[in-house]
Amino acid sequence: QVQLVESGGGLVQAGGSLRLSCQNSGRTFSNYAMGWFRQAPGKEREFVAGINWSGGATYYTESTKGRFTISRDNAKNTLYLQMSSLKPEDTAVYYCAASASGSYLRASTAYNYWGQGTQVTVSS
Q: Residue 1 in 3-state DSSP?
């Protein structure tokens, strides 16, 4: 069973940086592609970044590419999201997710397991 717990969220000023972590307590972490999603008040859940099982392929959106970096350490059962040049528009609850299929990673329906979320607030 995959169990995901996010951490690292908080309050930061515009232009600052944060590093989110997602710890997996299960024993099959390397078998799953992983992703980060976020949901802001009044908006639908949206894709932030994705990564394949080995970490050799990554996926972003136009709004996150160049500012955010997704990575994973399979030996530590941990997924990361390094965020820099943060903007108030990045304010949201960020969720970690695991995908068994490893396809269509920009769609939330591709993921089988979800964490509880961590709040990121960027002040102007």
A: coil
